[in-house]
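Help needed: design a sequence for this.
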């Protein structure tokens, strides 16, 4: 269980706590409060703590406070709270504020008049309540995603009580980390610790992402599957590709794949959407697209390709079908591929393809002639169009498109 530091600072009764540095990282998760009694904290914390410094049991001069800032950031505490105004620490030295800001460590000032017992009680109570709400949210989401609920009407009532707007159209994203090689490269104990830590970091990142993304909700089913519910958007694929890039930084040496469902009109269709997202995830884990994502709406051909165990056969097919259209010596080496993709998307309608690409019709005609010349195929040949459509589907999943 955890709360974002910014959520804690907004708790009723904690209004007098003031952020002095590291305000850009108030989304850090607080797992519990810890009052530092010793000279240092490095050996007493494990990460995620909101550390309180009073100066009662140990002198807290500038040098010691700077050391606490350094150690706290190194071990991953959520933030550092310094009590001021009493007998022990009159004010936070400017050098300490400057260093915390430089490191990005949230540094908070608490007046001695605000009793520590009150602060820790408020935080502890909020953590317990948050855990209860979070457990209830995951429970109702899990029921709707698996179809294991006694009554859809009651499920909707519970969701409304928990402030979950689940009857809006959404698409589902299934996410999973890959364990490939983890237990081969590390001893079992170390691998298990790494696995659990990465799972927790992934969960934290997804929750932060959902808080910053209107309409997005996350859920974790029993096991290792994470689920996102996201509203439909024109740039959804690009948004999810960026999320995948962020999550790779969290995953470290592990890979991560994502599967996207078609649109679920309301929560009554979540079970079907989850099934679609799982199928797309399986294909993504096999084909490993550059964006990390496979869309169920494209799954017909992709499921056939998934059955080909030798990836080189797929790459050879793409190269033989459209590889000649990549003009490496030009400023836009993939222009002909984009043109072919637009033509296929518009069922061969050159006027609509030109409009899609923002090109003059004459420019499109010149590109069409060049496509036929370089490929040695006719755009009127239905077999070539079929092969090209499959090849372009695969190409859109490769790094080549992203590197243009």
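Sure. Designed sequence:
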């Amino acid at each position: 269980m955890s709360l974002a530091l910014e959520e804690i600072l907004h708790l009723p009764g904690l209004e007098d706590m003031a952020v002095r540095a590291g305000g850009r990282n108030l989304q850090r998760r607080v797992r519990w409060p810890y009052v530092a009694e010793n000279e240092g904290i490095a050996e007493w914390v494990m990460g995620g703590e909101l550390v309180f410094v009073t100066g009662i049991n140990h002198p807290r001069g500038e040098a010691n406070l700077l050391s606490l800032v350094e150690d706290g950031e190194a071990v991953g505490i959520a933030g550092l709270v310094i009590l001021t105004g009493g007998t022990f620490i009159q004010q936070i030295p400017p050098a300490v504020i400057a260093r915390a800001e430089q490191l990005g460590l949230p540094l908070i000032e608490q007046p001695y008049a605000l009793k520590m017992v009150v602060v820790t009680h408020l935080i502890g109570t909020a953590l317990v309540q948050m855990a209860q709400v979070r457990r209830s949210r995951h429970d109702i989401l899990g029921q709707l995603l698996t179809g294991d609920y006694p009554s859809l009407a009651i499920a909707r009532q519970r969701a409304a009580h928990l402030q979950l707007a689940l009857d809006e159209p959404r698409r589902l994203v299934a996410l999973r980390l890959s364990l490939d090689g983890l237990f081969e490269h590390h001893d079992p104990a170390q691998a298990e610790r790494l696995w659990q830590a990465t799972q927790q970091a992934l969960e934290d990142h997804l929750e932060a992402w959902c808080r910053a993304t209107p309409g997005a909700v996350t859920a974790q089913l029993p096991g290792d599957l994470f689920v996102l519910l996201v509203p439909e958007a024109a740039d959804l694929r690009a948004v999810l590709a960026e999320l995948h890039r962020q999550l790779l930084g969290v995953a470290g040496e592990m890979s991560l794949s994502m599967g996207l469902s078609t649109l679920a009109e309301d929560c009554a269709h979540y079970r079907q959407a989850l099934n679609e997202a799982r199928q797309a995830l399986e294909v993504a884990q096999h084909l490993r697209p550059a964006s990390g994502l496979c869309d169920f709406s494209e799954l017909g051909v992709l499921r056939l390709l998934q059955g080909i165990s030798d990836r080189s056969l797929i790459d050879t097919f793409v190269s033989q079908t459209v590889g000649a259209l990549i003009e490496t010596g030009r400023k836009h080496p993939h222009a002909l591929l984009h043109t072919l993709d637009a033509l296929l998307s518009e069922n061969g309608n050159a006027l609509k393809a030109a409009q899609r690409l923002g090109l003059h019709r004459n420019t499109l005609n010149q590109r069409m002639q060049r496509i036929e010349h370089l490929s040695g195929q006719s755009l009127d040949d239905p077999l070539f169009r079929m092969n090209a459509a499959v090849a372009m589907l695969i190409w859109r999943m490769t790094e080549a498109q992203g590197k243009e």
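Residues 53 and 82 are 5 Å apart (CA to CA).
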